[in-house]
Amino acid sequence: MRTALLIATDSYSDPAFSALRAPGHDVASLRAVLADPAIGAFRTQVLVNRPAQEVRERVEDLFATAGLDDLVLLYLSGHGVKDRQGRLHFAATDTRADRLRTTGVPAELVRELIHESRSRKVVVLLDCCYSGAFPAGMRPKGGAVDVAELVEGRGCAVITSSTHLQHAFEPDGTAEVSTGPASVFTGVVVEGLRTGAADVDGDGAVTARDLYDYVHEHVRRLTPHQTPTSGGVVSGDLLVAHAPRRPAGGSAVRVAAAKALGDLGDPERAAAVLRGAAGGPAVAPPREYRFPARLDGKGGPVAFSPDSSLLAAAGTVWDTRTWQPASRLPRHDRPRAFSPDGHLLAVAGPRGISLRSTAAWHEVRFLPALARYLRFSHDGGLLVAWRPGTLSLWEAADGTWQSAPPAWEGVWAVDVSRSSPRLAVIGMPRDEMLRVELFDTSTRQLIARHPLREAEAMGLSPDGGLVALSSSTATVVLRTVDWAPVAELHTPSALREPGPVFVDDSTLAVHAHHGLELWDLPTRTRAFRLETDLEHLDFSPDGRFAAVSDRNGPPRVWARDRGDLGPLPIDPAPPVTPAERVGTRWWRRVVNRARPT
């Protein structure tokens, strides 16, 4: 198994640490290439602006659960701080500069967890000031190694953005505050993996050594005052990623070739050229959800827990490891949402919202609010409840939940980022023009707004960097930092709900007339389609499942691997597609009108 934990911190409660903008963008870009089955094929987990205790626990979980042959990648982006003894600490969102040992994440702790882990294949990427101060002492595990082990690589490779005496620079050339979209170090890592340029020896594989050589050369070229370093001990070649095959010619040639292929009606080959795969083996598109299974129950919203171990569907909470019921829920067509730590399940009902403990499944709090949309903020401190026209917020404070201002009116659609403090709304307040607005869920302050001509539904990417706006004719994807268009998908939306859903930061699911379409945003091509009718949709955070349901049929789970469905039987008959259902309803109306009274 290949597992990556990506940790980014860009806002801090202690004013001694200046705010950063790069980490949030960094982690989204890196996640996209690491999770790509054709490049990194990692199962990725992302933490953005989390407290130090949670960061320490998740890092320990990462290494404690890794198996002997698992490859583990840890990435940290944010402020790195030295104490008076010169020891490196990573700053979390609640770290105090005067209490680094107890409120920060000591680099020494990370080193010890790596050493105690069973995994003998570890890659650490550090993008922070003084990251070169990461403790030495890495060594390969186990006894003698044979030729196969030397080929695969064993041990730990550490690549840092700077030496122990340097700051890690961001795009504007400062080491304190970023105004650009990505740090130099992480930007080079992402570009090297995405394009295959980090495969310096051209063998189709990017090893830890390849990656360091590429990063060192290009970072030094861009910022001569920043020198990436490499540490650790590795036996053989530790495979970080597969390199997409690059065609001859520069990027301008590839873009021109892709445009020509697109004009000739060959979008698949156009996508291959843009991915750098033309003239060679095609880069695999995102893996399809090929195996459908039917669950008990009828209709209702669906929601996965943050660790993907639970699925709330119809009147049941399912354990996705065994596909046995973990709990029963009231049977009604109302939304559900798990808190980011997985400790709470919010269930909307006809009278209000019930907050239930996932440990005992009893109600711990009742909120008098009606909702057709529920989502916790990325840190779990805010619960967003929406019903047509009205948006209300509930804030966790002193062990209870309280209504929090403001309460928006005239809101048509809403979505909350899963891994960043971002909330997006579409609305037309007080007879003003239609617009999309972006808010910070930590401060509830308006960040930006953008006028719209039309939009019926919306989805916000996990990192909050992209917003997808669907209308009856197309879905447009915009960057939230400057509202620049990223992609326009000419696929008509079937219904207002569900709106577009980001599977990850580079894959978008759109409910179209002929089913659920998944689009690869970097290439602007449709990866595949699930011919299924639906009113509710969710994807498991680990990428293994898609869950759908409609008002008239049972909920379904689509899996990428048959083994993940366990005892559930495969149901080969797909549900009726939206286009067929619309046609059926139209035919029934015609027949009913023709009947004699």
Write the CATH fold name of the largest domain.
Methylamine Dehydrogenase, Chain H
Q: How many independent structural domains? A: 3
Query: Approximately what portion of the residues adopt beta-strand conformation?
Result: 25-35%
Q: Structural class per helix/strand content?
A: alpha+beta
Report the major sheet. Answer: 7 strands, antiparallel
Highest-level CATH class of the largest domain: Mainly Beta
CATH architecture of the largest domain: 7 Propeller
* Strand line-up in the sheet with most strands: 21-22-23-24-25-26-27
What helical percentage do the residues reach?
Answer: 10-25%
Q: What is the C-alpha radius of gyration, as a whole number of Å?
A: 24 Å
Number of helices: 10
Structure commentary:
The chain has 597 residues and is α+β, with helices and mostly antiparallel strands. It has 3 domains: 2-242, Rossmann fold (3-Layer(aba) Sandwich); 249-282; 291-589, YVTN repeat-like/Quinoprotein amine dehydrogenase (Methylamine Dehydrogenase, Chain H, 7 Propeller), CATH 2.130.10. The protein is built from 10 helices and 38 strands. It has a 7-stranded antiparallel beta sheet, with no helix packed on it. A 6-stranded mixed beta sheet has the order 2-1-3-7-8-10, with helices on both faces. A hairpin with a 2-residue loop joins strand 33 (507-512) and strand 34. The protein starts with a strand and ends with a helix. Residues 137-154, 163-182, 246-259, 272-285 and 582-597 have low confidence and may be disordered.
